[in-house]
Specification:
The complex is a heterotetramer of chains A (about 300), B (about 375), C (about 525) and D (about 300). Chain C has about 525 residues and is of the alpha/beta class. Chain C is built from 18 helices and 22 strands. Classes of the chains: A alpha/beta (about 300), B mainly alpha (about 375), C alpha/beta (about 525), D mainly alpha (about 300). The complex binds adenosine-5'-triphosphate (2 copies) and magnesium ion (2 copies).
Chain lengths: ~300, ~375, ~525, ~300
């Protein structure tokens, strides 16, 4: 029997963002483990989650990744009926039988960004899509990082209310810039690109980091560094162990300690990039986070 | 004398035969046309797939066979049909009254919120009370949300096209606020409400599938509203108000009250759909409880020529397309967005096949 | 008669489904004549004329105009040839000005409209020449029906048309306006134009026509010079039997007061005073007429009596009960029936079948409704009964009423209201658009209602109608009742003075009487 | 909060208002034409998506911005032609067909985008703000009004041309009459269907341009569902504006203003209002404004009604 893996994503895998990350993970498993893979996009419609899980499980899929916390309930409902299938849930901390949470702690790289922002800038702005955990978590890390440098560092936050409106993301960013923000991080899935656009148009004074994917082409003069999530590496690792018959016994959390999964790097080819001294400080903080000495989140 | 006695039943007989024949022909027309239309739409979907490097036959395979392969698949179709039928039926009433309620999506959210509030509030209530209570809460909330647009229309002549579109956004945004704020499940990081108490869940009628009593309620209501619109005096008033308001006033009908009645009925049906989604399917409130059922419901109603009875069938048709699209993605990795294309084509080809010319075919006359 | 007539419509066939609206019609019209088309409701007059001006395409047949065959089914072609029609329902865009309506469709679409002054000047010139009193910058929706009629006629002249078709132009005109129109038609003919005229009013047909063609059952059955015929013969040709020109009226004594109106006032829909302190009574077995030039508050009076317009002052009592200010839904529960003035606006619901139109006021009560549900059996029976009794021409009771000819729609409304068995019957324009045979029948029905003890108020702009059946006639002017007259034809002139507001002169005349 | 009253804040808000209003201005003025002729196109959202996608694809392929904008217009018109065929020629219910158009627009653009562009990650060159010598550098006004790109400025042109065409040409006069009393147009020998086709094509062409602005005049990427409901808002704008082009222009700006304000206000850290309350602001204000102005009954009489000749 071939090993089969299914993926449930809550949106379109064509967007540079969350869903694409899940899709890449699936493709990684296909390439590296030779698994037969399949995915389904569910348009953030909770009613269809359970059916999709059952569709895969009943067809004998070995692993099903529900890419997002919202899949947890449905997986729990289904899992008991399919004890031989492992249900992985992204951004969840669950561990109940064959339902296992996988969390990439985005607050950690964002903590580093916040740190850089507070060291180099006067005011920061965060533009989110909707107020959901992956985004809240990231922003929480950013704020904690910035405040570890300067407890009064001003940070404004705005949500556009969806993940498609690039125009709104751009205008929200522009308005923050006009209100004095010189360090901006957009995080709105498909609409993110609008944020980088705004940053690029505002000249070289506004700084940012490229998140999840590489956006240097959009804002070459503004992007100080990259946070690229190679979730695929982590997922491949986990799925490999399942394939080998070792189902994880606890939920899994990827962080800066997993350098192959969360890649945080600075760009050398940008004018007014991050100076060496700050880079050293950041490396230091990064090591401490990896070692568990710094908490990037509030709880 | 005897002659007359003898003739009566015979006249009735031929009458009956004629009526039956007419009915059969009409039914055949009514079914053949949409069926042909669906085939044409699927065929164009297949061509599109083939052009993009997929296997075109998969469309037929999945849509015509795959989705009906087992009980669970059929149950899932009916499950999806519940909100579509309910909303479609409600909109038949609104549209017959010439009220362009584009706000079923928002009314669905209002119903879902109310059902959630009720569903997480009364621990230990018997299902015999709890289930109807949740349904009523949903329906009332939907009616109230639609009623805002109704009142604005009656008292301020504010176009319901504008107000219902705006109220959609407001309902969605409010729901987002509620699940990230007041209604948020304290135990979860994700924005969602607490789970509804088990006693508030809609009883399932075909275990182990998820199909719940909502489908029976939806069909019963479709028939009830068919009777209401075309066989009751209140429904007649709604239709007259929708066609000629001067004549309606002249005939002693209260225009404002009928407008409110019709829009509230459509809102109540959408609200009920929301309650069923929460209490029958997800058991929690999420920000995205509806994948656009409210908008699809417009097409459901209009495809049925605003006939509530017909909405049962057009609702199921759309549910099949939805289910099929998911299955197509799982089995053939066809992007799900293609379903909107096929849905769009189904509507257009139904229209093109002139089902509209035959629209009275499905009505008994 | 020459061999080559000015216009020849030959063997025209037009079917709507099973219904034959033109069954091989052949019509010849000479240059410079006024040719009248007469015929029963639904005989096919409007359809035939719509074919002539290209709005409808016939199934068969041809038209030769000025010696040339006319391409059928193209309004453009008709206009290019100088054929213009004033339709039964006006073809004026209500939210545009008169001038804008005139230039509508003229010239290429890309034309920039920068000749407003020139157009206005031309309109005023034409208007002066024919004494039509049309203001080029008035919005159509602000004009009275009579004014719109003049605007329509002037439009045709503006377009330089030489064959003018008028479909029941006088149905909504006051007698004065009708007189003016007929004079105008004669002037046009004198100017070299040709006119086809449709009307149900035999007296005006006799006055204005050169020749007359009678249609029956979708065919032309008879054509004659006006000078060689008389109304009686025409009526017989139309209806196929003799029509009573004078209705026999039983002498009955009016009984108790049914409707009593005291100092009633109300405003029009746009908020101007329309009815100013009107008082009168209507008794059992009595037909009271209200005469007046339209626009003098009659419409508002009718609406106020039935609760369709808010009452500002005064009171209305029905059978002794105060019904002032009751909503229409309440008034509707009282024994009142109402034949409204504008059937398309109020009396019927065009897209609904005849059955459901018959249901209109009684949709929520026995015998058509019980426990909230409609009884289509009873409704269908009743509708069939009305269709038969009032000879409504229709293919079935399930036909949409919009497919009936104008006169037949009116007959159904009258039938429905008379069948309601009211104590008080309010009629606003009884015979609008009804043919002469049907008119006789309808009036007889109303008289029968009188004898059966109803109280009847008949508002009309048709003096003939009023004189034929009323017991007494009140004259309304400027929202007030300015006088009362018996239905005595010898006092016609006095009535004219009253209607024009010359109360003093009329009184002098009355004394002389 | 301290920033709210400053001139800078106001200037940015005005600038953002105009940009956010731009797609609405195009789409709603276009829809004014359509509805004035009696055709209600509820499929604007799908049309705008098509414009956004086709425009993007054209620039992606050719690198030419003018060609991209033209393609956006033509893309919109292509969808419009389908809509017109079904509503005018087949005489199907306009709302049904509009709903189908939305589904088609959504599905086709997403499908094509995935099949051909996804993963390229590349954006396209977009219209840059014009540097108007002297004006762009003015204090306050420069920021507020004179740092937009040509597409944004062209909204002024569009509204002027729309007013001229609708009220000063024979075409416009006839078009208005078609929506009010089609038969009156028919009997003077003008084709009601042709005018409705024309009106729909103008409407969808402009809506396509509105969509194109999103990908070619604002952000440089196509995203599935990038219009995010603007087609529906444009429909509301038309009703609110009482079917007047100038009204549509102003109401679009009003809507853009509320939208810009809510984004600006969210960014104020001191404002302790749930962000959803601010997000709802444009929609709530639209209702409030609508109630305050009181809609007169000036809807085109035959709006939504197919014309039957007989
Ligand atoms: N005589 C009747 N007996 C029973 N039902 C009737 C009768 N007349 C009308 N109805 C009911 O009224 C409904 C509406 O009739 P109608 O023919 O107007 O509908 P339609 O053709 O579907 O709609 P539309 O008015 O949009 O064309 C029908 O479905 C029918 O059930
Ligand atoms: N569009 C239509 N569809 C179906 N039947 C029609 C249509 N137009 C006219 N008819 C029918 O054709 C016949 C002739 O109608 P037409 O309007 O010509 O009568 P008319 O002689 O003008 O009557 P009236 O004196 O009442 O105006 C009528 O029976 C009418 O019901
Ligand atoms: Mg019908
Ligand atoms: Mg006629």
């Amino acid at each position: 029997d071939t090993f089969k893996m299914g993926l449930l994503v809550p949106g379109s895998v064509s967007e540079e963002g969350w869903n694409r990350i899940g899709y890449n993970a699936l493709k990684g498993v296909e390439k590296e483990l030779g698994a037969q893979v399949s995915y389904v996009e569910l348009q953030q419609n909770p009613a269809s989650f359970e059916k999709a899980f059952r569709d895969y499980a009943s067809q004998g899929f070995n692993v099903i990744l529900g890419h997002g916390f919202e899949f947890q309930d449905a997986a729990l409902d289904v899992a008991a009926d399919y004890p031989d299938t492992v249900f992985l849930i992204s951004s969840s901390y669950i561990h109940e039988g064959n339902v296992i949470g996988l969390n990439t702690d985005t607050s950690q790289p964002f903590y580093l960004m916040g740190y850089v922002a507070a060291r180099m800038g006067k005011k920061a702005g965060l533009v989110g899509g909707m107020e959901i955990p992956p985004i809240q978590q990231a922003f929480e890390g950013f704020k904690n990082g910035a405040r570890s440098v300067d407890p009064d560092f001003p940070i404004s936050e705005a949500y556009i209310g969806n993940f498609t409106d690039t125009t709104a993301a751009k205008e929200a960013s522009l308005s923050m810039i006009s209100q004095g923000a010189d360090f901006l991080v957009p995080n709105a899935s498909g609409a993110t690109v609008g944020g980088y656009q705004a940053i690029a148009e505002s000249g070289g004074d506004v700084k940012t980091f490229s998140i999840f994917s590489d956006f240097t082409e959009v804002a070459p003069n503004n992007i100080l560094g990259l946070y690229v999530a190679d979730y695929a590496q982590g997922v491949v690792r986990v799925v490999k162990s399942i394939q080998d018959g070792e189902v994880p016994s606890w939920n899994i959390e990827f962080g800066l300690k997993d350098a192959d999964v969360i890649k945080f790097s600075f760009r050398d080819d940008v004018e007014n990039g991050v100076p060496a001294d700050i880079r050293e400080e950041v490396e230091d903080v990064k090591a401490k986070i990896a070692a568990g000495e710094i908490k990037t989140r509030n709880r | 004398m005897a002659n007359i006695e003898n003739e009566r039943p015979r006249a009735a007989d031929t009458d009956f035969l004629a009526t039956m024949t007419r009915f059969l022909i009409r039914t055949a027309q009514a079914i053949a046309m949409p069926a042909a239309a669906v085939l044409v739409a699927l065929a164009s979907g297949a061509v599109l797939l083939a052009l993009s490097g997929f296997n075109g036959w998969d469309v037929f395979d999945v849509m015509l066979v795959g989705v009906f392969s087992d009980t669970r698949s059929v149950a899932e179709i009916l499950l999806k049909a519940i909100p579509l039928i309910l909303i479609g039926v409600g909109l038949c009433v609104a549209f017959r009254c010439s009220i362009w309620n584009i706000g079923a999506e928002g009314q669905l959210y209002a119903g879902a919120v109310a059902a959630t509030v009720v569903g997480v509030s009364f621990e230990g209530l018997t299902p015999w009370l709890y289930v109807p209570l949740v349904m009523i809460a949903g329906a009332l909330a939907g009616a109230a949300w639609a009623g805002i647009a109704g009142l604005l229309k009656v008292y301020f002549r504010a176009s319901e096209i504008v107000t219902t579109i705006m109220l959609n956004y407001i309902a969605l945004i409010s729901t987002s606020y509620l699940v990230t704020g007041p209604l948020k499940d304290a135990a979860a990081a994700y924005p969602q409400s607490a789970r509804l108490f088990k006693e508030a869940w809609m009883p399932r009628i075909l275990p182990p599938t998820r199909l719940h009593i909502g489908i029976l309620v939806a069909i019963a209501l479709a028939i009830a509203f068919y009777v209401f619109l075309f066989r009751s005096s209140a429904g007649f008033a709604v239709r007259v108000v929708g066609t000629n308001q001067h004549a309606a006033r002249y005939a002693g009908m209260n225009v404002g009250r009928n407008v409110l009645l019709a829009i509230c009925i459509s809102g109540a049906m959408a609200g009920l759909a929301g309650a069923f989604e929460v209490a029958g399917v997800t058991h929690r409130l999420y920000q995205n409880i509806s994948p656009g059922y409210g908008f699809e419901g417009i097409a459901v109603a209009l495809l049925a020529n605003n006939n509530p009875f017909g909405a049962i069938f057009s609702g199921i048709l759309f549910a099949v397309l939805r289910s099929g699209s998911e299955l197509m993605q799982i089995t053939a990795q066809v992007p799900q967005v293609l379903v909107s294309v096929i849905q769009g084509m189904v509507i257009l080809s139904v229209v093109a096949f002139g089902v509209y010319r035959f629209r009275s075919a499905i009505h008994p006359k | 008669m020459t061999d080559k007539p000015f216009l020849r419509m030959e063997n025209i066939h037009k079917r709507f489904g099973d219904l034959v609206a033109s069954g091989g019609v052949t019509l010849e019209v000479e240059k410079n004549e006024i040719h009248t088309l007469l015929g029963e409701n639904g005989a096919g007059k409007s359809v035939l004329m719509n074919i002539l001006c290209g709005v409808l395409a016939p199934n068969e047949g041809q038209i030769v105009y000025k010696g040339e065959p006319l391409r059928l089914g193209s309004p453009r072609e008709a206009i290019r040839h100088g054929i213009g029609m004033v339709h039964q329902h006006f073809m004026l865009v209500p939210n545009l000005t008169v001038a804008e309506n005139y230039v509508l469709g003229q010239g290429t679409p890309t034309r920039v409209i920068n000749d407003r002054e020139e157009v206005h000047r031309r309109i005023r010139a034409l208007s002066d020449r024919y004494g039509l009193d049309v203001r080029p910058d008035a919005l159509i929706q602000d004009l009275s029906v009579g004014e719109q009629q003049r605007v329509e006629i002037l439009k045709v002249l503006f377009h330089g048309i030489d064959l003018l078709i008028l479909d029941e132009p006088t149905a909504v005109l006051t007698p004065q306006e009708t007189d003016r129109l007929l004079l105008l038609l004669r002037e046009l003919v004198a100017d070299g134009k040709t006119v086809i005229f449709i009307s149900h009013k035999l007296d005006e047909v006799m006055r204005v026509s050169d020749r007359i063609s009678v249609m029956r059952d979708a065919r032309i059955v008879f054509t004659t010079a006006a000078s060689e015929t008389n109304p009686r013969e025409l009526a017989r040709m139309m209806v196929g039997r003799d029509v009573l020109m004078e209705l026999p009226r039983a002498a009955v004594e009016p009984g108790r007061v049914v409707l009593s109106v005291d100092k009633l006032s109300c405003d029009s829909e746009i908020g101007l005073p329309a009815v100013r302190g009107v008082s009168f009574e209507v008794r059992e077995k009595e037909i009271v007429g209200i005469a007046g030039v339209s626009g003098n508050g009659q419409s508002e009076l009718a609406l106020a009596l039935t609760g369709l317009l808010p009452v500002k002052g005064g009171s209305v009592r029905l059978d002794g009960e105060e019904i002032t200010g009751l909503p229409p839904s309440e008034v509707n529960r009282r024994p009142i029936a109402h034949i409204p003035e504008d059937r398309h606006k109020m009396g019927i619901v065009l897209p609904l079948p005849l059955t459901e139109n018959v249901l209109l006021q009684r949709y929520d009560r026995a015998p058509f409704s019980s426990r909230g549900l409609l009884d289509f059996g009873a409704i269908t029976d009743h509708t069939r009964d009305l269709i038969r009794r009032f000879r409504v021409k229709t293919s079935s009771e399930n036909e949409r009423i919009q497919n009936l000819s104008g006169g037949n729609q009116q007959k159904l409304v009258v039938a429905r209201e008379l069948a309601r068995d009211p104590d008080f019957l309010l009629i606003n324009q009884l015979t609008r658009g009804i043919d002469i045979g049907a008119m006789e029948m309808v009036m007889q029905e109303v008289l029968r209602q009188r004898e059966a003890g109803r109280a009847i108020l008949l508002i009309s702009t048709e003096l003939e109608e009023l004189f034929a059946i009323c017991d007494r006639i009140l004259v309304m002017y400027h929202g007030e009742l300015v006088g009362e007259l018996p239905p005595d034809r010898s006092r016609l002139e006095e009535m004219g003075l009253l209607m024009a507001g010359h109360v003093g002169e009329a009184a002098a005349r009355a004394v002389a009487h | 909060m301290e920033d709210v009253a400053t001139l800078g804040f106001i200037a940015t808000t005005i600038g953002a208002t105009w940009r956010l209003a731009t797609p609405l201005i195009f789409a709603s003025i276009g829809e004014v034409f359509s509805e004035r002729a009696g055709v209600l196109n509820i499929g604007l959202e799908g049309v705008m998506l098509m414009g956004a996608f086709v425009g993007f694809a054209a620039v992606f392929a050719t690198g030419s911005l003018p060609l991209g904008l033209l393609s956006a217009v033509l893309g919109g018109m292509a969808v419009g032609l389908v809509f017109a065929f079904f509503t005018i020629t087949v005489k199907a219910d306009q709302i049904v067909v509009g709903a189908a158009i939305n589904l088609l627009g959504m599905g086709l653009t997403a499908f094509l985008f995935r099949t051909y562009y996804v993963g390229t990650g590349r954006g396209v060159e977009i219209a840059q703000p014009l540097d108007l010598p002297g004006l762009s550098d003015l204090p306050f006004l420069g920021e507020a009004l004179f740092r937009q790109n040509a597409i944004v400025y062209s909204t002024l042109l569009v509204v002027l041309v729309a007013v001229f065409v609708l009220y000063k040409t024979s075409f416009g006069l006839t078009l208005r009459a078609v929506g009010e009393h089609p038969k009156a147009v028919d009997v003077v020998g003008r084709s009601v269907a042709a005018y409705r086709y024309g009106a729909v094509l103008i409407g969808t062409g402009l809506a396509g341009l509105g969509g194109g602005f999103l990908t070619l005049g604002h952000s440089n990427q196509f995203v599935e569902g990038i219009t995010s409901g603007r087609g529906f808002i444009a429909l509301a704008v038309v009703v609110f504006a009482r079917w007047s082009p100038i009204g549509a222009f102003l109401v679009s700006l009003l809507f853009g203003l509320f939208y810009a304000l809510q984004l600006q206000l969210q960014a104020q850290p001191a404002l302790a209002i749930p962000y959803q309350a601010l997000q709802a602001l444009p929609y709530v204000m639209t209702i409030v404004a609508l109630v305050m102005v009181r809609n007169k009954g000036d809807t085109p009489k035959t709006l939504g009604v197919p014309y039957n000749k007989a």
